[in-house]
Amino acid sequence: MGGLTLTIITSRASSLNYGETMGNVSVLKKVTLGDGVQRTFVSDKALKYDIRRKGKEEKGWRLLDERLKEYVKGNLSGTALNVDEFGKALVKDYEEFDLFGGLFTNLKTDKKVKLSYGDSVKRTCPVKVTYAFSVSDFKGDMNFLNNIEAYNRYIKHVEEKAEQAIAQTEEHTSHYTYTLTIDLDRIGVWEEEDGSHKAVLGNEERAKRVKDLLDIVMTLNRQIKGRWESLAPVFVVGGIFETKHPFFMDSLDVMEIGGKLFLNTRSLRESIEMVPEYDRDNIIFALKTGIFANEEEIKQELGPETIGKAFEDLKKKVEAYYGVTS
Hints:
Elements: E1 3-10, E2 13-14, E3 18-22, E4 25-28, E5 30-32, E6 38-42, H1 44-59, H2 68-74, E7 76-77, E8 80-81, H3 83-93, H4 95-100, E9 102-104, E10 108-110, E11 113-114, E12 121-123, E13 127-129, E14 132-134, E15 142-145, H5 148-159, E16 167-170, E17 173-174, E18 176-183, E19 189-191, E20 197-199, H6 203-218, E21 221-224, E22 227-230, E23 233-241, E24 254-257, E25 260-263, H7 265-272, E26 284-287, H8 295-302, H9 307-322
Parallel strand pairs: 4-16
Antiparallel strand pairs: 1-18, 1-23, 2-17, 3-4, 5-6, 6-14, 7-8, 9-12, 10-11, 13-18, 14-18, 15-16, 19-20, 21-22, 23-26, 24-25
Helix pairs in contact: 1-6, 6-9
């Protein structure tokens, strides 16, 4: 048994996730803490969207598409769907379904064939991502949006308006923290209706999918409102452990002081005690230089690697876990 977990501090990024528009104001997603402080956040859905986008663009992942209807037809026995065969086919052919799961109900092939209500397919995601919460507080900054040059060239002729409408957006720039967990035993495996588990992929492909995911996380970015924002890690703690648990999800006590981050190493070291003793040698720390005000303390207390080396080491450990070599 094994699980991979990474808790990450990202690069500084701006205004990553908007919610409902209130009048002419685009409102950032945020939460209010017990002391009244507001933090912006990026939802797990938004993070997974960009992971899937990069997976398709950079790794050739297949995302769920209109061809699902063909998979339904190909796994029918009369008007009954062979749920297990359908699910195994999706795990094999679609990286999105294998890694992030899905739920299909009320499946239909055409007007003549209506499947029973029980012919539903569910896969709980082996890869889980938390919200990414900002390190710094939200202070209510706003931005007036004006594109008068484009308006004068063509918008006014299309909209036939005398003036350009001025919109506003809430703005916030911060580092963010989030946690990624992967159940390594469930990658490429289908849980059949009788409770048994069936390996759909060989170990080389299972390892490849996890390594591709690690590559994506190392260079994660978000494209929003015409901007490209980096969510690449500047600090990472985690590893591959026998005990499947996001050990460091609440362990990062970090704040921004004078334009640099300050990481409470004492709090982090105490969280290490939560990791079973037999797993502690598997903990990895990684750091990007020049970001933290107490960088030397972090190096002395935690002995971090560079970000690139840590991810390469993790990929080798993934290969070892699945018993394959690159």
